[in-house]
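User: I'm writing a short report section on ligand binding and want a predicted complex to refer to. Could you take this sequence and zinc ion and write out the structure as C-alpha cells? A short remark afterwards would be nice.
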Amino acid sequence: MTHLSALRAIVGDHGILTDPSDTAPYSQDWRRLYQGRTPAVIRPATTREVADVVRLCAETRTPIVPQGGNTSMVGGAVPAEDGSQLILSTSRLNRVRAVDPVDMTMTLEAGVTLKAAQDTAIGANCMLPLSISSEGSAQIGGVLAVNAGGNNTVRYGNARDLVLGLEVVLADGTVWNGLRRLRKDNTGYCLRQLFVGSEGTLGIITAAVLKLVPRSREIAIAFCAVRSPEDALELFTRYQAHDAAAISAFELMSGLGTEFVLKHIEGAVLPLASAAPFYVLVELATPRPGGGMRSTLESVLEDALEASVVQDAVIAESEAQRAAIWRLREEHSEAQKREGASVKNDVSVPVSKVPAFIRGATAACEKLIPGIRIVPFGHIGDGNIHFNLEQPEGSDPAWFLAQDHVLMDAVNDVVRAYDGSFSAEHGIGRLKPYMMPDWRGGAELALMQRIKAALDPTGIMNPGKMLP
Ligand code: 2HG
Ligand code: ZN
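Assistant: Sure. The C-alpha cells for the complex follow:
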C-alpha cells in the first residue's frame, strides 16, 4: 500500500481526504448498492499531479479507482470493500482549456461537469450535443470513460462519436498527450477510442477535445400519450419518414414510471387530461432559423392523432413547458429510487424490435415474480430501453435485490433473442462483469484481456470492474 504521506506530498493537504466521514460519500454509489471502503480519496489538481500519483501507485502496486461525478449505474466508480483501493477523484481537474467556435471544438479537463461543458459551448454560440439525466453531476472524464449515450444519441451518436482528442495518464504514470483537434487524422491505431468506454481500467482520462455542433435555434417538443410501444415505434417511423434529420430526441416512458415521477418529484405535473399506458417525448431541433420545427412536429402529430396512433398530445409553448416535459423523463431514475428497490437492465435491441422485446421481457419477469412492477423507459429511438424492475409493493427490498441475477438473466435471454446487447449505455462496472464471458467470450474477451495486460501490467487500474 502506498504511504499516504507520499501522496500528500504530491497533492498537498487540500488534495487528500482520509477521514472516514469525508471518504464515505465517495465510497458508495448513488443507489447505495455498493458500500466500499478506501484509505484515501486523492484529489489532484493537475495532470502532472495525476501522473505522479499513478506512478507512485504503480511502484507500490496500489489499486486506483478513478472517479468523476460518481453517477455510475453499475458501481463502476466505487472501491472494493476490503479497503485496499484508493479513489482518485477528478473533481479538481475542472478547467476549460479552450473553446474554438471556428474549429467547433472545446478542450476540457476531466472534472468539468457535463452541464458546465454544455453551458460553455452555448456561451460560444455552439452546442455540445450530449445530454444525460445526471449531467449536473457527471464529469467529462467519467462520461467518456463509460462512453455515455443519453438523450441525443438518436441524432449525434454516443460520447465516443464526439471525441477528437484525449489526454490520458497511463497505468505507469506516463502522460499521453493526444489532444489533437483534427477532423482527419489517419495515423495508425485510434488510441483515443481504446480509452473511451474502458471504464478506467486502462488509464485515467485527464482532458479531452470534444466536437461541437451549431447551436439549435428552433426547438419543438411534444409529450404524447400512446397505447403501446408498438404505437410509439409507429410514431417514430412517421417522424423519420417525414424529416429524420430533425429528430433530436425520441424517448419512451411507461404509465407506471411516469406515475412514480408524479408521486415522488415535487412540482411534476402530467400535462395531459388523463393518464395513458405509455408516453413519448419527441423533440425536433434545427440550427436553421425559420426551420419549421413547430409545423413539422404538428403535421406528423395531427396525422398520427387522426390514425389513432397517438391518443392525445401537448406541444410546449414556452421554455418552462419544455423543461417541465423533460423533467418528467429525466426524473425517472430518482422517482424509481424513492419508490423502492429496483433492478436495472440497460439493454438495447434493434429499434424495430423494441416492442417485441418489451412484451417478451415483461412476460418473463412477471412469470418469475408475480406482482413485480415493470418500468420500461428510455431511448426508444436508439433501441435502448431501461427495462427497470421495481419490487412488488410491500415486499422486502433486500429479498428483491437478491433476485437481481435471475431477473437480469431472464431479461437478457429476451435481449439475445432479438440480437441485442446486455449493456447499452451504462457500461459493465461491478454489476455485469459476470456476463462478459457469456456475451463477449472467445476471441473478443481474450483480445480485451490482452489489451488490459499490455496497458496495465500490474493490474492497478480499477480492478474488479468491466472484465470478469
Ligand atoms: C436515463 O436515461 C439514464 O435517464 C438512467 O440512463 C436510466 O435509471 C436508469 O435506469
Ligand atoms: Zn439512459
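A remark for your report: The CA atoms of residues 75 and 430 lie 5 Å apart. The pocket of (2R)-2-hydroxypentanedioic acid (ligand 1) is lined by residues 73, 133, 332-333, 344, 346, 378, 386, 388 (CB under 6 Å).
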